[in-house]
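Lab meeting, item 3. Inverse folding demo.
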């Protein structure tokens, strides 16, 4: 009998490569469903509403919190971010494994609600390389980058609560490691 669908949570510090690794992972594992989060942060150039995020006003976000629409939500770097519950539950019910790309506080909320979820902490090869990637992305102001750097030590300290830690040294290698985690889970 096929094992039931699983929820995988990918998190780690800003700029480590979560978005890049998730995109490459989804290209390889077509059966995975990606949960598009809602956020109140402003849209970056090239980001599409409903594809990268659902971009909401603070009022709309809080209305949805009140309506119980989020599986988890958190304030991250001064904005709200949340996972839409109906999408995740529907996919799992239909037997599809789901990927969430969320911050460390959200990840631990998910683990409490759904202890079977597998938490993957994506870590940088070094702090210097992380900063290099964050600056090189050219999407945040120096103030925004400083804010993200201030959270780094706290975010790294959360690694111990995760089921797996994967170093994002090379995208393809990190993706292969996550694929092995998924394959092991599917064969349980
Ligand atoms: P996050 O989603 O964790 O904030 P991104 O996926 O946006 O991070 O990646 C941050 C920057 O680092 C991007 O410019 C991306 O192209 C780059 N990057 C991601 N993974 C790697 C890697 N393994 N090696 C080198 N650069 C990377
Ligand atoms: P960014 O603004 O760089 O896209 O994301 C900032 C942070 O918010 C990242 O750590 C990202 O993983 C996190 N994030 C994105 N979506 C969600 C979500 O739905 N819930 C939570 N808790 N964090 C999220």
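The presenter then showed the designed sequence:
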């Amino acid at each position: 009998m096929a094992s039931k669908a699983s929820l995988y949570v990918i998190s780690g510090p800003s700029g480590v490569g979560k978005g890049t690794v998730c995109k490459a992972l989804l290209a390889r594992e077509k059966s995975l469903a990606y949960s598009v989060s809602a956020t109140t942060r402003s849209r970056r150039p090239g980001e599409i509403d409903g594809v990268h995020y659902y971009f909401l006003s603070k009022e709309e976000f809080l209305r949805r919190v009140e309506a119980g629409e989020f599986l988890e939500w958190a304030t991250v770097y001064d904005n709200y971010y949340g996972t839409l519950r109906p999408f995740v539950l529907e996919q799992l019910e239909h037997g599809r494994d789901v990927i969430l790309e969320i911050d460390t506080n959200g990840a631990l909320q998910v683990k409490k609600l759904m202890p079977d979820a597998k938490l993957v902490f994506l870590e940088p090869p070094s702090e210097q390389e992380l900063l290099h990637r964050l600056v090189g992305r050219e999407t945040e102001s120096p103030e925004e980058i400083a804010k993200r750097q201030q959270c780094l030590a706290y975010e790294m300290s959360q690694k111990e609560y995760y089921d797996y830690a994967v170093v994002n040294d090379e995208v393809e290698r990190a993706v292969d490691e996550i694929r092995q985690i998924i394959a092991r889970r599917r064969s349980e």
